[in-house]
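Late entry, written up from scratch paper. The run itself happened at the end of the previous shift, but nothing got recorded in the book at the time, so transcribing now.
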Amino acid sequence: MAVFLLALGAACCLGLGFVLQQHAAQRAPRADLLRWRLLLDLIRMPQWLLGTAFMVSGLILSALALHQGEVSLVEPLLATNLIFAMTLARVLTRQTLGRSGWAGVLLLALGVTAFIVAGRPTGGGPPAGELRHWLVVGTVVGLTVLLVSLARRLPLFEEATLLALAAGLLYGLQDALTRTTTQRLDHDGLAAVLRSWQPYAVVVAGVVGLLLVQSAFEAAPLRMSLPALTAAQPLSGIACAVGFLGDRLRVTPGALAWQAVGLLAIVVGVIVIGRHPAMPGTTARDTLESIGAPPENGPDVDNGVGDGNDIDDAVDDSHDGGDMSGKGE
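Output as recorded:
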């Protein structure tokens, strides 16, 4: 029960933090995309710092959950962060949940339940050797580099999705390595942990993932990035846990079928929730900037999502008569 409460608490903090961070990141200069200067700009924004405080709290709770439970159990629960993100976005945009919103919530909840019940994740398997560790880590890092390289060749909206996918892969790897680090701390002590490479890899994965996800938040509205991030993280984490942590799932044909159905329901539910009108939408200015066209000087024309009450409109209203935090320069 403690693992469930910790994981859901982490999901709540992460979801709230992501919405606040994206609300702030969309006002950062576009020239800072995928540059470390972006983080320096963001730390000057109180709203981003509040979102980061929520995110750090979520990471601490998720580390505690991973210390007590298997990665393949915790990761599906962390995917529910999108529900909490949608709750805050719904308050900000004044949108009702509607049929599509409830459908997404139901799919996500049923998918998590189906995967956990069918897979019955357990630990206790023999951990993999160093070679297998490096093969799994190298595969995740290689896929991340490939996604970032492809993202740089796409328009901003599509770039945001691929950057979020890359960040999700790194965050899943970070969760698995966090579990490895806490296990070593329990068995061998702090000195052994400091002599191993895993804790330093956790820090590197977290920092690079932070840059990628903030760049995705800056490049496009939340609905273009958060669903990809939320779907990629549990898939990556579960793959790493089975790959080198010794996590075990039931492998009978029926169990495998239900696990696949559960993961598919999680991914579809994440996409449905992420595309819901309650999530921050786009404006005409965002669309022009995403294709490289200069924004018009007039007011934004809403695309019909959010009835004029979405977060982007609120940001534009607060900057009437001037550029958007340097975007027009």
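Residues 2-317 form one domain.
(Scratch paper discarded after transcription.)
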